[in-house]
Amino acid sequence: MKIAVCINRVPDTGSRIDVRQGIIDSSRFNMVMNPYDEYALEEAVRIKEQHAGTTVSAFSAGGRDHYDVLRKALAVGADAAYLVEGGNNGDSYVVAASLGKAIKALYSGLPDLVFCGRESSDCNRAQVPLMLGEMLGIAAVSAVTKLELLDGELKVWRETEGGMEEYALRAPALLSAEKGLNIPRKTNIKAVMKAKKQPVIHLDGSVEELPRVRYEELQTLTRDRKCRFLDTEKELVALLHAKGGL
């Protein structure tokens, strides 16, 4: 079985974010692997451990600064790491197209499974996985919280507001991982040192598609909160009437 895992590099959620003249100041960012992608990678490695002959390849669209997350993927258990160059990592459509081009170029046909995180924690758009599934022409299920692989058939579950949905799939298929699918493992020093010696292979992911989204300016949101104490219920009712609340 061949498994592809798409990972991204995002700011740690604890990083301080400042906006200067409409542009995000990234000088204080601590960059990490996207947390949702960690669930995707862990699930792929678990399948590899349970099914002999399975290989896991990690893909990340961006520049050489993505080496750190690709090497982490190798330390966790991926067999190969691929840097997909040429895509615009600020636009979901172009990222999906770049990843799709690289995956198609690497495999003769398609991998049996493609794993992604549900979304990247920087922009929270959750667009790339389903776009990628459409571009690869394979079935896709998002926000998976449970997975079983039996006799070549996949059973996956995803939580909804009203309960749980269950799907039965056959490969090839794309799954995006939700929190709760598993508990990602910690890497040890030996695995990290070994990963540093493994190559990161560059793939051409340049595409002709133009970005569908253009960021022109960013602004911080200022919330002014006012607290007012009232002595009686009548004052509260009068205030709500005045504000149109009743």
Order of helices and strands: EEEEEHEHEHEHEEEEHEH
The chain-level mean pLDDT equals 87
Quote the distance from N terminus to C terminus: 63 Å
Any idea what the CATH superfamily is called? HUPs
Write a structural description:
With 246 residues, the protein is of the alpha/beta class. The chain has one domain: Rossmann fold (3-Layer(aba) Sandwich). It has six helices and 13 strands. It has helices at 35-50, 67-76, 92-106, 128-136, 189-197, 233-243, and strands at residues 2-6, 9-11, 18-20, 23-25, 31-33, 55-61, 80-85, 113-117, 139-150, 153-160, 163-170, 173-177, 200-204. A hairpin with a 2-residue loop joins β9 (139-150) and β10 (153-160). α2 (67-76) packs across α5 (189-197) and α3 packs across α4.
At a glance:
With 246 residues, the chain is α/β, with parallel strands linked by helices.
Topology of helices and strands:
Elements: E1 2-6, E2 9-11, E3 18-20, E4 23-25, E5 31-33, H1 35-50, E6 55-61, H2 67-76, E7 80-85, H3 92-106, E8 113-117, H4 128-136, E9 139-150, E10 153-160, E11 163-170, E12 173-177, H5 189-197, E13 200-204, H6 233-243
Parallel strand pairs: 1-6, 1-8, 6-7, 7-13, 8-12, 9-12
Antiparallel strand pairs: 2-5, 3-4, 9-10, 10-11
Helix pairs in contact: 2-5, 3-4
Which features does this protein show?
246 residues, 13 strands, Rossmann fold, two-stranded antiparallel ribbon, 9-stranded mixed beta sheet, 6 helices, alpha/beta
